Amino acid sequence: MNRPVPLHAIARAALMALALPLAHAEDVKLERIEVTGSSIKRIDGETALPVEVIKREDIAKSGVTTAAELLQKITSNVGGLTDGASVSDQMGGQRGFNGANLRGLGVSSTLVLLNGRRLANFASPGDNAGVDLNTIPAGAIQRVEVLKDGASAIYGTDAMGGVINFITRKDYQGADLNLYALDTQEGGAKKTTLTVSGGVGDLRKDGFNAFLNLDVQKLGELNATQRDFIREYNLPGRLPPQTSSNSFPANVDLTSSQLTALNNFVLANPNTALKGSNANGTWNPGGPNSGSRRVNFGKSACTGAPNPNSVVALGLGGREGCSYDYVAGSEIYPAADKASALGRVTFQVAPDHQLFAELLLTRAETDYAASPATARFRTASGITLPASLQAATGITTPVDFRFRLEDAGKRVSRVESEGSRLVAGAQGHFGEWDYDTALNFSRNQVTDTDLSGWVSFSKLEAGLKAGQYNPFQAPADRTAGQAFMNSIRLDGGSRRAEGRATSLDGKLTRALAELDGGDAMLALGAELRREEVAFRASDVLKANDITGDRSSSGALLSDTDHQRNVAGVYAEISAPFTKQWEGQFALRHDRYQGVSDARTGLTSPSLSTTNPKLGLSFRPSKSLLARASFGTGFRAPSVAELFLPLRSGITASFVRDPVSGEVAQMPVDRASNPDLKPEKSKQASVGVVFEPTREWSGSIDYWTIRKTDIISEIGEETIFTNPVYYNDPKIVARFSDGFVNYVNVKKENRGKLNTSGIDVALNWRGTATEIGRFAVSAAGTLVTEYKFATDPRSPLVDGLGKFKDDKAVQRWRHKVSVDWDRGPFGLTLSNTYLSGYRDQNVPGLAAPEWNDRDVEAYSLWDLTGSYKVSPQMRLRFGVLNVANTAPPFTNQARYFQVTWDPTYGDPRGRSYFLSFSYSMR
């Protein structure tokens, strides 16, 4: 895996750069191949240097079956979106989205291509704009090319962090069948896959080729209760400040007069059944992380595991309240059904001309189950304790309380994502020119539906006022409570988003002149693209009446439709000045039409940009190549970032409000911003590739990226540590008593991000011996700098080797593989390693057992093997995560799975897989 093509095979060494050229069917001795990183066709082996190539055989050996799983093993992919992270309800409405994040620059800055052309972005609006990796037909992948350098000069926007090009099989004849099954040692997260491929026709002999690939996957859910490490990490015991104050029974935040009345009642009635923790039975509420007068009149039912409710003095329920472990009752890996169909037909209509068409259809259905919804009612609602509790406490006035809707059951949502892409075009050559042109129609539709566990807020409030439901005590028989919740259940709450991208692209290449090192080559290209985004919400969502899925500010959802046109032109020259020196020069100009919004009457500014890419390579000998490059990048704000439908939820992390002292996940409304400026970047790299012998090869590259005007929201940690923000009523809206009502944030140009690092690769392939052939492949990334601004007013902060903002940027990541092959047998032992880092601090605490700690390094070992039964049949088998290593413990509360980080941790543990493949050719 990750093997650069040997230097002795290089006809003209190319410098690192960017894009996809056409594959030319001309009958010549030297094959022209597709290359990610340049628009100029090149001879085989010429462009292996700038691109990390993962071949089909490497993918099969790894035991992974999806594009998202594969990219988790890429050392330059930092903080990508995974199925585990999607379980979180803090994803900005983008559950089901799997995204790549090269260099940690953001999912929106990594361009994902299929056969060199764009796909529609994941349609559901949110924090990230990018291609959903679920739309990549994993079973059809021939190889993956990862360009770890900015590519705006060739591809335009989205390519600031790099390009990942998934290249599928072409000109295939025969039929393949593959069956794959995986199970985990501790249960849950099963996976089965069926892939069928077939192709007919020889382009040279028959004048056509048709190829079809069908891929079906079924993934089982994984519950937190199925993993020992979740129980061992024990959220209430090890990290009580990250528990929830929304418990069942309800926690009540008493006024000072109510607390006085309660304790006076206890002293006057020493035989009362409801007593506090003091020796005389009075109540002593409070704690470092709870309200100073928080009590729970049903706390005797908060008995702890397996009950998610417990009394923990340092929890958010405090000494006299209950704290809730929301992790224990949730799924940590969702159930999903995924299917894709990819078909391609190519016609050799003349010796120098081809027509082709490619159709991709994908569907992914993923179910998410999280802990029950929460509700809070303040004294203004007028709700009082039930008569029995009034008689037992002496409290007769309205109360402020919060609780979890356990009688409604878990919150279950289903995300259905459907994608399609039709590409039709022609390629060939006329005269001195090669050409490639195509129409691209791409679409993604996402429907996010609330299935169960969701109830009407207005009917819940009315039922509480009427005494139809008692959240303050937990009876042994829950039938009546469950019946009430079922009577106010809401069905049909859904969000549907659709994104379309229609484009026409074309490129021309030719030789310009013969230089000392070979022909100087010219490429000219242009692209016209129309982007369309539509959002629809169901009536029940528009009514803002779903408990746990509503806006605290009262702002209502509305349907939206937005479009814009994009035009780009570019030129590229490759100039081999001598046998040793070659230069690459590229320039691209793009224009982005402003986006108009019918709701507000606003139109975002039109944008234009010109981005160069310069490169130079020097090969003093066949065994050594030096290279360097410089370029600029540009990313226009996405349509969703400019005019995003309102999204409501809670802060991703627990925060401490300095004004009220409350520690909680605060309600938050997230908005777009039509005045956003584009992100810009400058990037440079310098490196060497070496091959001292035929057995040894390697490379080392230093890279640096400077990004400005980052588009993001100001983080909640920044808001609640800066008085400029938490004292601004436009940002933090408060009740009259000073407690937070909701937080209002919007997309902003937050500031700068600077990152640098070193990529290394080393490969050895031994000669065949009596005991077989051995090979070793290693690739690693050392990040030497990662600094970013948390808001426009602040200086850069150091995020290297720390959990900051929304992710951890490890200093070192590597992937090492050792292969052994002998006859029909093959074994591969591989290790994926991520270094440790400084943990996120728990808000407002100084206890060393929680703060100022290090997260352990994460190292996974896989052992896979294969046996070729016959020329047509092969068996593959393996153990993934041989040591059954659990994700390391962390304080992070950005994602729903507190105590570990789902952006890189794999909760499945030791897994076993077996696959069978049969080929007829």
UniProtKB/TrEMBL annotation:
SUPFAM superfamilies named among the record's database cross-references: Porins
Record has DNA repair as a keyword: no
Pfam families, sorted: Plug, TonB_dep_Rec_b-barrel
Domain TonB-dependent receptor plug: 46-163
Top-level taxon of origin: Bacteria
Classification via PANTHER family: PTHR47234, TONB-DEPENDENT RECEPTOR
Name the UniProt record assigns to this protein: TonB-dependent receptor
Species this chain originates from: Inhella gelatinilytica
